[in-house]
Amino acid sequence: MHTMVAQAGYERPVRPARTVVAPPLQLAAWPPVSAPDRLAVERLTFGPGITGPTALALFYLFGGVLTLLSLAAPAWDGADVGGAASIGLAASLSGALVLWLRAHLSDVSCHVLVALGSVLIGAALVAGGGGTATSVFSALYVFVAVYAALFFGPTGATAQISWAGTVHTVALLQAGGDGVLASTLVLFGTIAATALVIGALVRQVRTAAATDPLTRLPNRRSFDEHLAMALARAERGDRPLSVLALDLDGFKAVNDQQGHAAGDRLLIDAGRSWSKALRHGDLLARSGGDEFVVLLPDAGESVARRVAGRLERRTPAPLGVSIGIAVSRPGETADALLRRADAALYVDKASGR
Asked: Distance between CA atoms of 76 and 80, rounded to whole angstroms?
């Protein structure tokens, strides 16, 4: 095995195996990925283009506007209309501010804002004076539960709903309404059950969206998300990171001669075998067809070479594998790193196939 600091490649020894590492390629057509300081926000994502902060801003706006609109109805006895109007206005303005700053909000900021939203709703309950307005404003806690179920994990969602239930109980006691315990049990029992179902469905959808249906490995979309986060951590901690691009050699011949079912079995076998060759914390994903990618956190060139060697030895017969290696450089984007690994793979494959 020998090394050239110009390109990268590694392949099954039908010829002398080699690993070479290339410098970053500068192509203007390569689109950059999101900046590292936005990664925490982008992890809280549900659906195309709807991030956690955006949904949070909309919930604040809807809650504030609904509160203000409710005050246009006939006056409710005992309600502090001015206080409720101030709370509705504050919620609306907060929603607009969150929408403006959404690209800069972290996970922690979202948790804090949801908890503050529960407090604002509690203040509206107190302004309702314990009568009809208080009962109406209690429905706004549905926003808290739905948001927590969609964008937080089970622990975070449970904490937020528990906090909302506590605030609701204290607010009802302060407002002097009747049936505080019964109201809290019914409302938050319903909310918790709804959040439980929503959360379970969301996790199923996210798992399906992030998993290759054949090999049950992470798919390219999931890999890209993990790579972006890993690059941000490596940049902050000044730690190495490597990516391997893998392409099975001889796969097309198996498909042509033995059928797609045989090819599918080999893809599954390769994924299972390669997974056993990785370190704890490494990530293997299928990017499409007979192509795979591996994320190696805290791995420089020497570690990447060793892992590539183990993967090569574990490739199921009768297939071979070509592997391109790229080690991250300071300030490099995820897209540029992947392009270098792909370029190294193609150079390696072309030189021996």
From this structure: 9
